[in-house]
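User: Hello, can you help with two protein structures?

Assistant: Certainly.
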Amino acid sequence: MEKMPSGSTIGAGNTKKGQSREGQFPKVILWGCPKSFNNGKIGSMDFGFSILYENGPCLAVSKPSGVATQAPPGIDSLEARIKAFLHERDHPSHEVYLAVPHRLDRPASGAMVFATRRRAAQKLSKQFENRTVKKIYWAWVAGTPDPIEGTWRDSLRKVYGKPLAEVVPAEHPDAKPAVLHYRTVAAIDGNSLLEIELETGRTHQIRIQAASRGWPILGDFQYGSTTAFGPPHDDERLRAIALHARTLEFEDPASRHLVLVVAPLPEFWPCVPLAASPSNDIK
């Protein structure tokens, strides 16, 4: 039964070495909260996120669903929460610097990486631009994809002025190629759990590619789901969809170690037996 343990401590017992990139640097597999203060809390103050990895200017966290990655000043966001946490914990003499090299949709949850210094931010951003960051997502979808594993290739465009994406012909002037690879790892009650690796990173890519084939992500009413997911909220902005950034693999800009962080599943996700999968092999 899958539930990645939470509140685990990173240390000698929880750090594993794998093959190195080009034989130079080891892969360090890390998950959970590395230190007691790294649970997004300081005393009785809960900042609403969990830290998965922290090394110098590199910070990886688990984003909860219903929280925007970024927002205008004065509006709640993960960026604002992290800045408030770092300010309260470190008491810097200057304004907290936090770079956001990638995004995760508001209703989705899971692993994200940030930088607290400009040079580290440049190095992380370059990795995303060069598509060397490996991103694995888990998603519950309605129905059973056929075939049960494969590759989806589409041309997508972001709808101007709206938080929407759509599939368009390849010759459309705004079309951008979108590619992902998926495999079905579990099924229950007519729904399927997919493990997805993104090859490109387009707006709402997983959501629109799944929905356009008739398998919308549970809870994603914006793209055709008819099934609620997660805790109910009157404010639709706080509602979750069944999309979780399970793992994120990147090169630490300071140590140059290849780091793999695994974001524990939210408590409200179904707990089911899984077929063998790379991210399920991480213990």
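That covers the first. Now for the second protein you mentioned:
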Amino acid sequence: MATERKIYDKFRIFGIPISYCDTKQALEFVGKSIKNKETNSIFTPCLESLALYNTNDVFAEASDNVDLSIVDGITLVIMSKFTKYPLHERITGATFVVEIIREFNETAKFFVVGSKPENLDIAFAKLHKDFPNMKGIEYYSPPFYKGSFPQEEVDIVIKKINESNANVVFFALGAPKQEMLIQAVKQHVKANILMSCGGTFEFIGGVVQRAPRRIQKMGLEWAFRIYSEPNRMIKRYAWQAKVFFIVVFKSIFGIKRKKLPSLNNNS
């Protein structure tokens, strides 16, 4: 008998774990985490995440341990149709952050780790205008480190989060740093949700222009980003495509890969 699909069950697409849920159910997950005073992590995987999963062991370990993994990339949504868990929608991290703030702004406190102070000041001003009754939102922008954060900086982040008494913490550092940092602090903070969100607050503040909604719905946001930042994005997407095709090639021809840990689905 085929296994019954359950909301929040995890499955894999070329290794990376994905959670079976839609936007409403993901918001319910956030609400339950806050209500039950749990500490849960949320990642927003896209094609870049798939490439990182297959090339970065620390990122892979963090992804294997995430509590909710909502698909940001349209490519992963399409690939899910060939699994037992076909996803019905793409949940972009940038949109979901705003949905969380919209849903919980009067009852929860927010904290941002990452981005630049000047960009966050602009984004926060817009959020306070849109949500005048927002309970509170603060930030800490750590200095730039090449590679992972040293332990002393991890300790500072833990202290800042706990002092803020935030319920929801957004990590705006870009992959793989944000996911690795979430993994490092999760057991030491009181916050209920730790979510990776990349450049979301640059989009919110209008510092970086996001693709028009029509292009987003078509799944062509990547093309808009190449048009907007060709020098940076062409190199980035070329690397992702190269790793993706290598992973697909190995899968088709049955080339052995590392053994993946089992996914803990609630039954």
